[in-house]
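Reviewer 2 asked us to include a model.

Predict the structure of this chain.
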Amino acid sequence: EEEEEEEEEEEEEEEEEDADVDAKAARSRKHFKWTHPRHDVVDDDGRRFLRFVNARILSRDGSLSSPGGSLTVDLSTGTIVSVVLPPDDDEEEGDDAVGRETFRVRSVVDCQNQILSPGYIDIQLNGCYGVDFSNAGDVHVDKALTVKDVMDASARLARTGVTSFCPTVVSSSKETYRTIIPLIRRARMWQRENRMRWQQRQRQGKQRQRQSQRQYEVGANILGMHLEGPFFAPSKRGAHDERHIRSPVHGIETVKEVYGLSSDGSEEFDDDDDDHDVPREVIEPPKPEWQDVEIITLAPELEGAFSAIASLTQKRRQQPQDDDEEGEGEGETHPSPLNHPIVVSMGHTSATYQDGLTALSHGATLLTHLYNAMNPFHHRDPGLVGLLSPHVELLLKKEQQPLQKQQPRPHPTQPHPTRPRPQHHRHESKPLRPFYSLIADGIHVHPTAVSLAHRAHPAGCVLVTDAMSAMGLGDGIHSLGNMSVNIEGARATLANTDVLAGSVATMERCVKNFKEFAGCDAGEALLCGTLHPARVLGRDVARTRRRKEVVVVEPPVGVLEVGAAADLILVNDELDVLGTWVGGRLAYKNDEMIAKLRA
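Predicted model (structure tokens):
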């Protein structure tokens, strides 16, 4: 009965809003506001739509469309249903361009010829705004991580243009992993359930939710975790606690034992109570599962590391790279307990160039914060930095040729393994060279080194913040796991040392810096914070995952294409974030910058 009364009140409020809709519509085009048309609010099948107009839209190749592009979002699914790019002089609208008359929209955002881009994806974030993703309460009991902390951090990250992130845990105790990993899963499930409720209300024609349900609604997507450590070279541990550093001596079995990971199970948090207002904090914690993890950073030269890499990445290497492409690397196989493949990154390592090549051949695909916590480039031993060279692709292709000769003759309808495989018209294959993350805060890496890396391997560059809990808080003493960190300006160091301990830079700042350091255009810089991290995770295309007995298709992220998640940011030419949308829902609006557009 209370819900029915609330719904009646909501309908009355909507009717009052519609009374002055014409005035709102007149102002929206000029002042970057949203119109709510009196008619054609809901399509015939009950869906609601949001349309962005007069935008320069970012494409996969880093190009920006001419002003006047439009993009339409289905609010009941949180996905993009139409992308219309203004045709060039000798070009007609492509297949993805759906006529403007196809959808009847609920709201319109006039982008005033600013840049519409996918939202930033930060795959290495240790914490922010006072929230430390590694704090299980074993040292700072009063600051122990809670589900509410994770949700609050998610909401505040939208201010920096981040629409997805991987909570990152530094090298920690076994007990910490067993506490933090399930807790992050609960936050992710809570966020997903909240959004499903909201989308259901959109399909039912209801525009609002109760205030109690709005607490954690709009924030950056919580992805799987990045476990940074503890399988590191002791001499390259950096700010990680030496008490936790160890080697994966027994390969995958050591990895499972340290993290407490159980066999691959469902990624579900059993919560049938739809009426509670806050997440339940006091329950019997579930065990960590492989589904909770996206990335593991380790040193490949350690004993047992190559075996662990092969086991962790076997499923990923066997999966198709493209819609029309079969997986490669069918030679030696390693037993893997995973139905959920893990991205293995090389970092905090003394590995040689040859160690890096071997790790790549076993399935590693990423370098963690390039240049930092690894051997420097030398002309006789280039180290892991040398893996950015195109020569690496030639070496790896030579390794694959004997394996290809051993393959049976394919069926006539299948592509021949020694001939070029057909490529999807949009989805390019992943490079053989690894992706590499960069902290472009102006402190971790010199601008010239940033430019060199980008020039050597532009398609592999992934911007990360590696931010800690002090991001957004200012100078002072803050925590990183069980360690104290001193913040002075933009520099974060372990207390009483000169050892760098992550950064306090935002993704917005890193992308701006990168554009300046690399001397690239805005589109290239945006790709390094959007498409490239999505490709690292295999999320630039739709991904199918099984939860209990249900197969769920997760839409692509990091791209602005039909069927992709409507995780968007609007930026100006200086890459200031003007607005952030997650699943088509407004998460942040920069009123100060928008006021400058009006002037």
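The longest helix spans residues 174-203. The mean pLDDT is 80. We have added this to the supplementary material.
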